Amino acid sequence: PLDRLQDPTLFKTDAFIAGDWVAGNSRFPVHDPATGHKLADVANLGPAETQAAIAAANAAWPAWKARTAKERSIVLRRWFDLLMAHQEDLARLMTAEQGKPLAESRGEVAYGASFVEWFAEEAKRINGEALPQFDNNRRLLVLKQPIGVCAAITPWNFPLAMITRKVAPALAAGCPVIIKPAELTPLTALAAAELALRAGIPAGVLNVITADAEQSIAVGKALCASDVVRHLSFTGSTEVGRILMAQCAPTVKKLSLELGGNAPFIVFDDADIDSAVEGAFASKYRNAGQTCVCSNRLYVQAGVYDEFVTKFAAKVRTAKVGNGFDDGVNQGPLIEEAALVKVQRHVDDALAKGGRVLVGGKRLPGLFFEPTVVADASADMLCAREETFGPFAPVFKFETEQEAIACANATEFGLASYFYSRDVGRIFRVGEALEYGMVGINVGILATEHVPFGGVKQSGLGREGSHFGIDDYVEIKYLCLGDI
Ligand code: ADP
């Protein structure tokens, strides 16, 4: 699929440090999950190159932070324009290495680029404050200054957007960045780096360290241990988030963590059922269920349970599974074998504990899994506790609003949640009671660049996107001026 790129020079396989493409001493393969074909052999770097990237970023920092906000804004805006000008090629690279349908990849390129556009604008609004003095001989000021060299470790499910929503605010604030993209999807990241270079982002301000699974651990250790790196932003599993947090303790690094979710999707008796069916479908099966905000547990009130389940199952039967490059496909492959094993384990467990399969339930050849709906789900099932991260929707029945809230909150996670209701009192009560960083009410999709994305409890720390998204990349400094 990659010989049809409009600009073949976007197909990069070397890492990017200090403005140079770095081949490294070894390579690792990247595969197309839809076909199993090898797409590329990518530079496999380790701790030594990571130190070089940290040094390059640190060296580039003074000149980058000395630029005016408007100058940084102009460079970011140029990067945004280039990302959008190459939307089609970036989408092809993404579908090839990640598997999501081409239309979804185009959407992700636009979504990913939108963070660059947004933070190009926000770069000009990182305002300090003048505080009222406690003594008329003094003046009290608050400055916001760039935190320093930042590291970003990103996952494979959004190969572009998870990078831009960390890198764009960092660059806007005046910080250089070292990106360690997921080993399964480095090609999109490298193409974005090539476009950053063309946009005029100076050497050393944006670096990409590619590494396989094993070397990623060593690269991560080097980034965490460095006292030059002042901030680490990570999106991925809660398990790895905990490891990185512990590794950052000795250098007391500022952390932004966007970890696992276990999103509830609640349908009350008073909901518009057709709308809830559409919302549940979009929320559950987007990216084949492989997003941290995908609904994981569907809770439906007894009065509309049968109607919802029947209509939802009918909707899911219309899903077309296949290679993301093929027309009409709206569910691609899962990313790797381990992902299929987990989905099958959750489905089998649900069936063994009394679940009733309405659609799907099985693997298909290759890395594909049938979009699956299981009714009569119960709290003792694995899918009630763990994030499935695949195309499996268990549907639970509940009686009261209190019960729905209690079930929804019975998890250590707190990223996205959703509910459908037409009752304004209930909308406020439930919206306030859900222990989640994000609540979608009568919607199944809620992310966009100018809202704060993030979780509570063990789903993470900090917010990405929106004007809050700059906060993690600046330090607040208090100046107390006397003798006025
Ligand atoms: P996912 O569940 O999305 O596969 P992971 O948390 O395993 O997420 O991986 C997300 C990112 O974290 C990837 O870039 C991966 O290479 C990296 N990673 C995984 N384990 C470690 C580790 N121990 N140290 C540093 N990075 C890691």
Tell me what you see in this structure.
This protein is of the alpha/beta class. It has helices at residues 47-66, 69-85, 87-98, 102-122, 161-173, 186-199, 213-225, 238-248, 273-285, 302-317, 337-352, 382-385, 401-409, 424-433; strands spanning 15-17, 20-22, 27-31, 38-43, 129-131, 139-146, 149-153, 177-180, 206-208, 229-235, 254-258, 263-267, 295-301, 356-359, 372-377, 392-398, 416-420, 438-441, 460-461, 474-481. Helix 1 packs across helix 7. Adenosine-5'-diphosphate is lined by residues 153-155, 180, 182-183, 216-217, 220, 236-237, 240, 243.
What's the layout of helices and strands?
Layout: E1 15-17, E2 20-22, E3 27-31, E4 38-43, H1 47-66, H2 69-85, H3 87-98, H4 102-122, E5 129-131, E6 139-146, E7 149-153, H5 161-173, E8 177-180, H6 186-199, E9 206-208, H7 213-225, E10 229-235, H8 238-248, E11 254-258, E12 263-267, H9 273-285, E13 295-301, H10 302-317, H11 337-352, E14 356-359, E15 372-377, H12 382-385, E16 392-398, H13 401-409, E17 416-420, H14 424-433, E18 438-441, E19 460-461, E20 474-481
Parallel strand pairs: 7-8, 7-10, 8-9, 10-11, 12-13, 12-17, 13-16, 15-16, 17-18
Antiparallel strand pairs: 1-2, 3-4, 5-6, 6-20, 11-19, 14-15
Number of helices: 14
Low-confidence spans: none
Q: Which range does the strand content fall in?
A: 15-25%
End-to-end separation in angstroms reads: 68 Å
Domain Aldehyde dehydrogenase: 21-478
Organism: Malikia spinosa
Protein name: Succinate-semialdehyde dehydrogenase (NADP(+))
Keywords: Oxidoreductase
